[in-house]
Structures are given as structure tokens and as C-alpha cells.
Specification:
Length: 304
């Protein structure tokens, strides 16, 4: 692993390293706001992930708008404040706002955002529009060194552990592992890294949905043995999605605020398990966005 020795305690990838991280991970309040980008320009114009193959030019824009509205309304009904950014011409993937940055709140209550470095040139122009929103809403902005760190795709790969100042960091397709070395050192947060091995699950948010501090939904085949061991050590309850549920229905790209779970419809077994655990489940239809490789989680970014 390309991590420097001075951050070995804070940037980990093995289950036996977890106790030291848990002992030092402070409290961080859960976010209560959602950033979305309206889909006026959403389409599939190129291929940058396996789900886009064969779908160029095949978005039903009226259906996509209705689906986006249903997802927005589900967040609102869950009690979250939704902020909507305008989409921009020639930026068809901007609707996937999870990828633009990593917002967080420090121990003094100050808001910060680490801006993304998109791996694909098709998406790099999206990030300044998200940065503008963060600046206007009182966030201190941070940029990674693009010479040292070739890619970092925000909350597509970096997921905060609920209630803790501890980050899960996926890498392998869209984010450089060096990003987590820097984030851990510079911003004094613990990072639990997970290597992704299946191209269809190119972001961590496509194969891992953190439901609450003790519960997670995953697609096991997307992870290495070390990654699975780390996940199972960190969470009391691990729900596992099957291949169709994960790759076709994108169930692991659901969004949870700890009580409500907003999820792509069509996976009754997963929904039953969620309800059995006490979650309120809101099923939505995101089929037009799944054609592009995203669903509920990709369509929003949680913020403070």
C-alpha cells in the first residue's frame, strides 16, 4: 500500500488495525442537508463506466425529470433540507452531485469541503459550480495537489461513518489511494481504505451503503478479502446484496439518514430486511440514471 509510515495508524486497510482507529475517532454530527443538481442537461453522451455501454443517447428526459423529482421529494419527506443547483450545458453527469466534493464539519463546528479531482476529463468542469455553492454557504474550501493526487471523486468514494470523525475510502477505479494519505494527515481524520475490484462497482457508493453506525449494506464481490474483513469487524450487522440486486437495481447506492432509507425499487428481500431492522424504507424509481451508472446516493451530496 502506498501510504507513508507516519499515517499508518490513521490510514488502514486491515481489520486488526481497527481498534486503534476506533479509540481515536471523535464524534461528528450527522448532516441534515442535501445538495442536488437539477437534470435539465442530463443525458448519456459518452462511456466512462460499464453501465453506460449501449446507453448513449437512450435517456428518456421526461421520465428522468420525474424520477429526479421523486428522489428530491423523498429526501424532503425524510425531514432533510434540499438545496438545488442548476445544471449546466455540456455537463450531462453533473446531476450526480455526490462526486463533486467531500464536505465535513470540524470539531469547532466549522464547515469545510475538499473538492474533487475528476478522473474523466468529461466531468472536470462540473466541480467549480459545486465549489461556488460551498463558498456561498460558508464552507472553507480545500484543494488536493493534482500533481501528487491524480483523482479523487468526493463522496462517490469517500463515505463518513455515521456519528464518527472516521472516513471509509474506496479506491481502485476513480480515486487515488494517495488522496486518503493526504486527507488523513492534513485534516486529522482516520481513513479506512477499501480496494474495489469489480469495474461495474467503480465507486464505493455503488457497493456500500452505510445505514447507521452499526449497520451496512454491501455487495461482497466488489471487495477484496481484506476489505470484507474490515467491514465485518467495524459493523455489527452486515446485509449482503446479490448480483442482480446490486448491479441491476443498484440497491447499495441507497441513501440513509440513520432512520429513513431511500432505495431503488425492485428488491423485496433487501427491503424486508431493512424494515425488520426498523428502518423506514422509501422506494423510488431511478432507472434512467442507472443507465448512466448512478442511483439515489449518486444523485445527492449530504451537507451541513
Amino acid at each position: 500500500m502506498p501510504f507513508s509510515t507516519d499515517t499508518a495508524v490513521k490510514v488502514i486497510n486491515r481489520a486488526d488495525q481497527l481498534p486503534a482507529v476506533l479509540a481515536n475517532a471523535g464524534h461528528m454530527p450527522r448532516p441534515g442537508q442535501v445538495i442536488m443538481v437539477e437534470p435539465a442537461y442530463f443525458s448519456i453522451d459518452y462511456v466512462i463506466n460499464p453501465h453506460m455501454e449501449g446507453n448513449v443517447g437512450k435517456v428518456d428526459k421526461e421520465k428522468a425529470l420525474r424520477q429526479w423529482g421523486a428522489v428530491r421529494d423523498a429526501f424532503t419527506r425524510s425531514g432533510l433540507t434540499v438545496h438545488v443547483l442548476a445544471g449546466q450545458p455540456k455537463m450531462p453527469d453533473m446531476v450526480f452531485s455526490a462526486n463533486h466534493g467531500l464536505p465535513y464539519i470540524d470539531e469547532q463546528g466549522n464547515k469545510h469541503a475538499i473538492m474533487s479531482i475528476m478522473r474523466s476529463g468529461h466531468r472536470r468542469q462540473e466541480v467549480p459550480f459545486a465549489e461556488q455553492w460551498y463558498r456561498q454557504n460558508g464552507y472553507e474550501i480545500h484543494h488536493l495537489d493534482p500533481i501528487e493526487i491524480k483523482a479523487f471523486e468526493g463522496m462517490g468514494d469517500a463515505l463518513w461513518h455515521p456519528g464518527r470523525r472516521m472516513l471509509w475510502g474506496g479506491y481502485g477505479f476513480r480515486t487515488s489511494p494517495k488522496a486518503y494519505d493526504f486527507i488523513s494527515t492534513r485534516y486529522q481524520v482516520s481513513v479506512l481504505t477499501l480496494e474495489l475490484k469489480e469495474p461495474a462497482f467503480y465507486h464505493l457508493d455503488t457497493c456500500m451503503c452505510i445505514l447507521d453506525e452499526e449497520t451496512v449494506l454491501i455487495y461482497p464481490q466488489a471487495f477484496t478479502a481484506d476489505g470484507l474483513a474490515l467491514i465485518r469487524e467495524a459493523f455489527k450487522t452486515v446485509l449482503e446484496a446479490g448480483p442482480r440486486e446490486a448491479e441491476v437495481n443498484f440497491v447499495c447506492n441507497a441513501a440513509s439518514d440513520g432512520k429513513n432509507v431511500i432505495i431503488q425499487q425492485g428488491s423485496p428481500s433487501i427491503v424486508d430486511q431493512l424494515k425488520h431492522l426498523g428502518f423506514a424504507v422509501r422506494e423510488v424509481e431511478t432507472g434512467e440514471y442507472i443507465k448512466s451508472g448512478g442511483s439515489v446516493f449518486c444523485m445527492k451530496c449530504m451537507a451541513w
